[in-house]
């Protein structure tokens, strides 16, 4: 019956570990909900599909929820390891490790030290929400107006939603997680003509974009995302032969970041010394003040299992170009 539940909810892979993570997520969300059935009306990844379950399947979920000791924090790390190798590589499911999120969030705290207004936090390549939950924990719920992100894989998206809800003390209106592709969702919300988007632009982006090798992406998809980025106004920064998924992802980040907003991102170090990052470097020079580029002394990467040499870039958008907002 567990496998049938996972299939009906679109959760992959269909195995006991996935089921346990699903159950731990439901247990956490139940701290803020009336009953399991009512979750089907929540605007959250996967949950509307609870409508497809029979009453005996719902009863099984309820009884499993009583028996789990898995914490949502553990799920945030473990969920990436369940993804089959091929898919993990394709989507770059290599989440930011604690050393990275510690550094990112200390900088956010400093950035906000003299700012009284609440902020909008965003990660358009959300994974299980590690960067944003760490930030909320560091700066405090009271500083956060809204937190949102996009993630294409259903179970990580659910874990991210639940983790964010939990770190926001159950404030449902303040949390949005879109199950989807950022190259589809961001243009839908933030393209001209500028209709008011239902989500606000970011004051702070904390991310680690997918860095799948360009040649491993399907040709049709490559063409599609190139034209998406060109239409968003970044054509002058793109030489079609010299692109990478991570630089196109960073143009999307630029699209949704407010002026004077803070960008902190893990990026492959190669972005800054190969021709593939040339266009993004031009954008950074024109529009941003670069505050720091940090590498780790003790590890090559800031992402779990990635194996890439990575850095963390800290930049402020706009003419002000100072770290203090
Ligand atoms: C390197 S991981 C980082 C996850 C998270 N930001 C973190 O720092 O832990 C990249 C994430 O981007 C997601 N991803 C891949 N392609 C995407 C796309 N087109 N739109 C949105 N997210 C995507 C992957 O599923 C993965 O969770």
UniProtKB/TrEMBL annotation:
On the tree of life, the source organism's domain of life is Archaea
State the UniProt keywords alphabetically: Endonuclease, Hydrolase, Methyltransferase, Nuclease, Restriction system, Transferase
Gene3D superfamilies listed in its UniProt record: Vaccinia Virus protein VP39
According to its UniProt entry, this protein's organism is Fervidicoccus fontis
Q: Which Pfam families match?
A: N6_Mtase
Molecular function terms from GO: DNA binding; endonuclease activity; N-methyltransferase activity; site-specific DNA-methyltransferase (adenine-specific) activity
Q: Which CDD domains match?
A: AdoMet_MTases
Cite a single GO BP annotation: DNA restriction-modification system
* PANTHER family per the UniProt record, alphabetical: DNA METHYLTRANSFERASE YEEA-RELATED (PTHR33841), RESTRICTION MODIFICATION SYSTEM DNA SPECIFICITY DOMAIN (PTHR33841:SF4)
Question: InterPro entries under this entry?
Answer: DNA_methylase_A-5, DNA_methylase_N6_adenine_CS, N4_N6_ade-DNA_methylase, SAM-dependent_MTases_sf
Q: Does the keyword Nucleus apply?
A: no
Domain DNA methylase adenine-specific, residue spans: 86-274
What name does this protein carry? Answer: Restriction endonuclease subunit M
